[in-house]
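Our collaborator T.R. sent over the components below with a one-line note: 'Predict the complex.' Nothing else. No constraints on interfaces, no templates requested, no preferences about which chain binds where. So this is a plain run: every listed entity goes in together, and whatever single assembly comes back becomes the starting point for the next discussion.
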Amino acid sequence: MDFPALKAHLSAIQTEAETKLQDIADTKALNEWRVLYLGKKSEMTGLSKQMGQLEASEKPQFGQSLNQVRQALEAKWNDKREALAAAEQSARLMAETIDVTLPGRRANFGAMHPISKVIREIEDVFLGMGFLIADGPEVETDKYNFEMLNLPKDHPARDMQDTFYITEELLMRTHTSPMQVRTMERLAPQVPVKVLVPGRVYRRDEDDATHSHAFTQIEGLVVGEGIRMSDLKGTLEQFARALFGEHQQVRLRPSFFPFTEPSAEVDLICVQCQGEGCRVCKQTGWIEILGSGMVHPRVLDMAGYDSSRYTGFAFGMGAERVAMLKYGIPDIRQFYQNDLRLLSQFATI
Ligand code: 2NL
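Returned assembly:
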């Protein structure tokens, strides 16, 4: 090729390269373009190798043209590279934009279990009357669960409570009374004793709508000088009014427990019919809520209180039963299934 032909070829390469460059829209294509038009195997490199064919006087001029074209293409490549980098950066920034006006995702709040709610409500009532609150082990000794409560080993009343035994001496507590006994032992001969003990207890019962082999008992005990059955009734009336309304009354019926004498069942005015008589109260207008009595003198003496000087009353109730009546829950097993459709109804927020 002669000088004019080489120059024409060079100019054609430049035009083609510049045209192609305009259409390039990403870094990958730009790199390919650079290899194609400015790389070691490019047409331009091929042209520079043909310089030898030219006259000596033509060589510097063609060399200069080659350099000019190369520099022009490199300058355009560089502009394109910068433009692409800026476009890619702004696309990335757009994609990463956070819309601060979007509402937040609501957190899931838990709700207090109805049994926990009832326990706290009852604790509040008795704290207000000056009781202290105690808790203790669910695995108990025969001594504290039975012996100290006037239930010696051969006592027929032990059959009243079928017990989960661990060994001959260790068992799952059947009531929270053991902690009341310990509280008396700790405080004796100091009076008054006023203690409330909530906690899980265990009985070998068949589970059904109203019975569970594991439930939550709340027991209360008062010991002092001149404590009478009227104190028991007044205390429980306070409790009934705080939980079930100011209109509440309580009614005592004779009963039997080995650890109290006399003993009494305590009834509330029916929460369903307000005393009119309905299916819930079997037309009596009253429903049983707890068991109670005057502490048996033998229980007082064993725990360190001289029964010729001190008297006391005690009561026990199932927190599940209180919650069933208060919230109209028909089956005790619902408390242990942890179905959110039940539990979420007790959410306060
Ligand atoms: C019920 C009845 C009751 C007691 C618990 C008690 C405790 C001591 C002394 C005397 Cl240390 N008595 N507790 C008394 C009467 C009834 O519970 O039906 N509970 C679910």
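Summary for T.R.: The chain is about 40% helix and 20% strand.
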